[in-house]
Amino acid sequence: MGKMKMWLKQVLVTITVLVVAGFGMTQVAHADSLQKIKDKGVLTIATSPDYPPYEFQVNQNGSSKDVGMDIDIAKQIAKDLGVKLKIKNMDFSSLLVAVETGKVDMAIGGINPTDERRQSVDFSNVYYNGGQSFVINKADAAKYKKRSDLQGLKIGAQTGTLQYDLAQQKISGATVVGMDKTPNLIFALKTNKVAAVGMEKPVAEAYVKNDKDLKMIDSGYDLDINETGAAVAFAKGNPDLVAAVNKSITKIQKNGWIAGYIKNAGKHMSENTVDTSMLRYWHYFYNGFLNTTLIAIVSVAFGIILGIVLALMKMSKFKLLSWPAISYIEIVRGTPMMVQILLVYFGLGALINLPALTAGIIAVSLNSGAYVAEIIRGGITSLDKGQKEAAKSLGLSQKDAMRFVILPQAFKNIWPALGNEFISVIKESSIVSIIGVTDLVYELNIVRADTYRGIAPIVVVMVIYFLMTFILTRGLNYLEGKMNHD
């Protein structure tokens, strides 16, 4: 009964810590006002560069450059404000969160100003409305000629978008399959996982133009332009900034520059598709490899240090040390790493403006520390009690015994488990791409969007991951053999 009460107390402490931490991170930091932006001399925007012709990346001499209609619009807005433009790339699903938490001044990315989104952020006037379409396989053109032909079928759409909601609401009996990336949806279409993919007409035209196996059909939706067009998103409470951007949008529309922006985007898309070999994009994969390796090495190093501290705290007889450690370990192990990364980048980022790479390393390190703590604790408890008694008989203090006797032997026993943790971090850290960290998975999605090739970039990244883990495994096995020999 006493153990049950102790367990319940630990659960209550853990839940309390989680709730308090959650409420502590809910304070939203609004984006800078117009005057602050001008004083700073920089306009920071968030976008998701995998949505041609709105925004995507072009490969110029081995380096990536953000281009597209939205990028040209953002450049004009920055020019009208008399400031420099700074672009932060991240997943589409993170754009509005970045605005709400003050990570950026505005978000632009073919964002539809729906009523639901207006509850969280403010929007500019609609700057472009290309309409809604479906992309289908050309082989199915005879079967699917209009929206009603898609009833009862599986329809693909990007998660969290207007296209996803429309497919749910306006196609009877349809099962909507949501994915984060448009290239993944196209791949699902070409492998017959879905019958059609809903997307904005300019994006559909871009894919159809660059893939002879695809065809576009009109959605037939009767929609309000003020909810379905593309607009710029801002944090609530910045009317001066919204007014300034609306002034630029009016100027752009009055001069008919949108058509020129789309034409310019088309030229860049043609550049990308002249040569879609993976060798042309080797620099993308190389940069992704470097960042993935950096995240893994630094995170495991800090994770081991944090793990030792947490393990010793958890094993302490003092509840003021053991309970916080127990709560931390349970919270981290009981929540997805993706949620932890978002919390560090957007939650902690509301207080401290952390770069995406730094936030990713911190989040993965904190996650790794919890798992390493249990590995180390297991290694310590597995040692024979005679080791502690022998150290004590030699006159060693408890601190010295832990440092010179217990931990060295524990590490020898847990080396394989630590090696597995290192390998896991290499693979699982790929989730940091959601906040725009240019790791291997991030670069994979960029190459797929630029080249319209679904399989080849995936194969390249799989090979890179395999080589990384294979070489690491062999190295760890060699060190383990040396330890056992010694």
Automatic annotation (TrEMBL):
<keyword id="KW-0812">Transmembrane</keyword>
<feature type="domain" description="ABC transmembrane type-1">
    <location>
        <begin position="289"/>
        <end position="473"/>
    </location>
</feature>
<keyword id="KW-0029">Amino-acid transport</keyword>
<dbReference type="InterPro" id="IPR000515">
    <property type="entry name" value="MetI-like"/>
</dbReference>
<dbReference type="GO" id="GO:0022857">
    <property type="term" value="F:transmembrane transporter activity"/>
</dbReference>
<keyword id="KW-1003">Cell membrane</keyword>
<dbReference type="GO" id="GO:0043190">
    <property type="term" value="C:ATP-binding cassette (ABC) transporter complex"/>
</dbReference>
<dbReference type="Pfam" id="PF00528">
    <property type="entry name" value="BPD_transp_1"/>
</dbReference>
<feature type="transmembrane region" description="Helical">
    <location>
        <begin position="284"/>
        <end position="312"/>
    </location>
</feature>
<dbReference type="Pfam" id="PF00497">
    <property type="entry name" value="SBP_bac_3"/>
</dbReference>
<keyword id="KW-0813">Transport</keyword>
<feature type="signal peptide">
    <location>
        <begin position="1"/>
        <end position="31"/>
    </location>
</feature>
<keyword id="KW-0472">Membrane</keyword>
<keyword id="KW-1133">Transmembrane helix</keyword>
<protein>
    <submittedName>
        <fullName>Polar amino acid ABC transporter inner membrane subunit</fullName>
    </submittedName>
</protein>
<dbReference type="InterPro" id="IPR001638">
    <property type="entry name" value="Solute-binding_3/MltF_N"/>
</dbReference>
<feature type="transmembrane region" description="Helical">
    <location>
        <begin position="454"/>
        <end position="473"/>
    </location>
</feature>
<dbReference type="InterPro" id="IPR035906">
    <property type="entry name" value="MetI-like_sf"/>
</dbReference>
<dbReference type="InterPro" id="IPR010065">
    <property type="entry name" value="AA_ABC_transptr_permease_3TM"/>
</dbReference>
<dbReference type="GO" id="GO:0006865">
    <property type="term" value="P:amino acid transport"/>
</dbReference>
<comment type="similarity">
    <text>Belongs to the binding-protein-dependent transport system permease family. HisMQ subfamily.</text>
</comment>
<feature type="transmembrane region" description="Helical">
    <location>
        <begin position="342"/>
        <end position="364"/>
    </location>
</feature>
<keyword id="KW-0732">Signal</keyword>
<dbReference type="InterPro" id="IPR043429">
    <property type="entry name" value="ArtM/GltK/GlnP/TcyL/YhdX-like"/>
</dbReference>
